[in-house]
Amino acid sequence: MYRTHNCGELNKKHCNSIVKLSGWVHSIRLMKKITFIDLRDFYGITQLLIPTIKINIKKEYVIQIIGKVVKRKFPNFNINTGDIEIYVKKIKILNKSIKIPIDINKEYNKNKVKLFKYRYIYLRNLNLKNNLIIKSKILNIIRKFFIINNFLEIETPLLVKSTSEGARNFIVLYRKKLGYYYSLPQSPQTFKQLLMIGGIDKYYQIVKCFRDEDARKDRQPEFLQLDLEMSFINRKNIFNIIIKLIKYLLYKIHKIKFINIKILSYKNIIKKYNTEKPDLRYKVYELNNNKFKYNINNKFLNYKIYGLILPNYFNIVGINKDVIINLLKNKINKILLYNYKNNIINKLDNKVFNKIKLIKELINKEFFSNKDLLLFLILKKNKYYKTIKNKINNFLLKSKYLNNIYIPIIIYKFPLFKYKNGKYYSYHHPFTKPYNNKLKNNLADSYDLIINGIEVGSGSIRIDNSKMQNKVFKILGLSNNKIKKEFSFFLKSLKFGTPPHGGIGIGIDRLILSLLNKNNIIDFIAFPKNYLNKDLMIKTPSKIKNIKI
RNA sequence: GGUUUGGUAGUUCAAAUUGGUUAGAAUACGUGCCUGUCACGCACGAGGCUACGGGUUCAAAUCCCGUCCAAACCGCCA
């Protein structure tokens, strides 16, 4: 037996009992006649008192000790086991460690190459460990939710067929015949639709998906997705499930009981925020430029007015208007803060003010609430505009006031197609049903889930009619030959009595980022790839030498 | 694929007078000291071909070119 207790559980109640502990040597403090060791395992840290200084033990050695739990003279309130220490009677070295090439207690921001290379050591970092614990918890909560709601968990293949739409696919060589390959799935899209056709009513899966695109801090080439699909439902039914899930998660993680999840149309979102994924807590957005870029003719010749909106600004406890003014003091010539209750917060001279009035009239009132702050910046050069935007964003991001605010929104009524370089592309994906089943309005029955400005998931009601599906493929410019080659089985499957169905795919890692107010996805992945999609630890991708058939 | 910034002790970072003495600190490491530390403290020591290769120069960490690597952004991400 390696241990009777772990390093995080002993307290006053265990005093005088003999215990056996195993773990890593976290730190060593030598005094004149005694030595203190912080012994660390997954569960915590326990202080060992060794009544000698002649020990041959270094940091990160794995040791096992037997000793007596005693009350400390001077408790340490920073750790759970701070009331006690172990008076060690016997030490055994289970395994030695060579010098550690990275500092496991430090946060690394630049030059992360060592972190990738020695990821297995950095897993001992407290923050990273806690991140993995919370990710595991969230996965459990999600599974529990879908069990309660009678979803069936079904796995789908990872060796699949490449299709011409979408991101680049990773390919896997086929051993039996040269020149043939499998493709790793970007999502289980086709298979989950086939499950619906097969009569599975509610399906979900937590599944690895693969996209061969360059990584970002919220993007990895392989990632976890919560995939779900339901039959005999319309968009409102799906919205209800999504809302229920998010509320369940926010309650289980943060004990937040009341939350209002808004459903907004794509058109209005773009008009108001000029982005597809607004962060309604605080983020600064450029008001639609056509309306708000004005040259002022007389005194302010060459100056331009930029409008910004800080949604819900006045809901944020602890921030007042002066904070923003102070923040921008030296950067710009004039600031005008404006709130829809018609409060002009600081004064400008009349000529400028008249221009602002003009702008005011152009704003469609329905978009703004009296909790929004409108900010007009009068600037000489437009390069300052981005600096200011970033400055405000960074400031608000760092401020503690936002820590417990979550504003999930569902955006719907996206365009069905976008036109680029003389070609039509699906805005969502080619299986999306047109809004009201009509192609002519170019609206899709698709929806995105955005939490605090992070695009967490997107989904749609699917086309359940073979003719419609064929039509959409043709609009997308797929030749008859290609349709036949890539989708003939699928078009055929739709003819055998397809139920109306739809679903959503939610990026688990992004969901976690949004629910925990974090920004880098690799902090929640045990073994991430770097921005070139390489794994610097196992050194992959690697070169092919011989392909044997 | 593109743009920008960067690569300096094991680690995290400085600095180097627009190219000119011996490239520093903290921490980690080693040795010694210190009855109670817990970010222990004190003293001493060891640690660098300034990413790699080439060029300019009396002289390069510094300027130039190339390669490799990293970060942010863009492209891309149905």
Structure write-up:
It is a single chain. By secondary structure, the protein is of the alpha+beta class. It has 3 domains: 12-95, Nucleic acid-binding proteins (OB fold (Dihydrolipoamide Acetyltransferase, E2P), Beta Barrel), CATH 2.40.50.140; 127-264 and 409-524, Bira Bifunctional Protein, Domain 2 (BirA Bifunctional Protein, domain 2); 282-405, Gyrase A, domain 2, CATH 3.30.1360. The protein has 13 helices and 22 strands. The protein has helices spanning 113-117, 119-122, 126-148, 189-197, 235-254, 266-273, 289-292, 321-328, 350-362, 383-398, 466-475, 480-493, 508-516; strands spanning 18-30, 35-41, 44-50, 62-71, 84-95, 152-153, 171-173, 181-183, 202-210, 222-231, 262-265, 285-286, 304-310, 334-339, 343-344, 373-379, 408-412, 417-420, 423-426, 446-451, 454-461, 501-507. The protein has an 8-stranded mixed beta sheet, with helices on both faces. Strands 1-2-3-5-4 form a 5-stranded mixed beta barrel. Strands 12-13-16-14-15 form a 5-stranded antiparallel beta sheet, covered by helices on one side. Strand 18 (417-420) and strand 19 (423-426) form a beta hairpin. The longest helix has 23 residues, at 126-148. It is globular and about 85 Å long. The two termini are 49 Å apart. Mean pLDDT is 82; it is low at 288-303, 330-334 and 339-349. The structure holds one RNA strand of 78 nucleotides.
